[in-house]
Amino acid sequence: xxxxxxxxxxxxxxxxxxxxxxxxxxxxxxxxxxxxxxxxxxxxxxxxxxxxxxxxxxxxxxxxxxxxxxxxxxxxxxxxxxxxxxxxxxxxxxxxxxxxxxxxxxxxxxxxxxxxxxxxxxxxxxxxxxxxxxxxxxxxxxxxxxxxxxxxxxxxxxxxxxxxxxxxxxxxxxxxxxxxxxxxxxxxxxxxxxxxxxxxxxxxxxxxxxxxxxxxxxxxxxxxxxxxxxxxxxxxxxxxxxxxxxxxxxxxxxxxxxxxxxxxxxxxxxxxxxxxxxxxxxxxxxxxxxxxxxxxxxxx
Length: 300
Prior knowledge:
- With 300 residues, the chain is mostly helical.
- The chain folds into two domains: 2-41; 67-299, MetI-like fold (Orthogonal Bundle), CATH 1.10.3720.10.
- Helices cover 72% and strands 2% of the residues.
- It has 13 helices and two strands, in the order H-E-E-H-H-H-H-H-H-H-H-H-H-H-H.
- Strands 1-2 form a two-stranded antiparallel sheet.
- The termini are far apart.
- 26% of the residues are buried.
């Protein structure tokens, strides 16, 4: 009886493993294996047009090259600026919109969908539309500024000084709907009693916002910050469509520079080294955020 039970259990386990086998193979072939192979490529120089015979061991030469590559350093600088401006801006604007929509306003559901729509739309299509809007001579943005008698209009994507801010504005506009939806979900968990008590004590709406709303939304802010930092360090499509890293490398970011090295110059090992540097940067920032989280997570 016990032997029959064990056989039945073995058949059930085998059936379960067979069901997950296709998914497991897919993860291994398209995630785990490429990840491990990219780690090996960090230490080799591979001309993949020659097949595996084009592999040459170079050790840490790629990392030494990174330290003197001015284009890599410029990309790293642009990425940090992009992230440092985009993440707080998208979070702040999304929070303000969420607080406003959380109150009684007309067409709340319609406005919620309207703000969230850019986030779920194709980033390529959005980038093309914004490129037309940023046209320095015929674009509607400069046309509006010109009608207001504003001189020295920005060159936007054609200007080394304005190209990166232009992309930041577009990406902030895209991410605002995402932050708004998460903050609106977080606001549902803030006890109404706190606002009532603050009102009785004479606190103004602004004071309640900074003393109650913002502190109570720390877990939500942490989630948003982590996801946005990862996304902004991996920004690619907007740069590829709108500027291709120009003008004068003013919008060159790590993800796009990795793409150029890998698929235009065929420097696969060098591109792999940069990709692992990018991974380590995101990993370290995330760990630091987790450590900061432990200081206040006991409050919730």
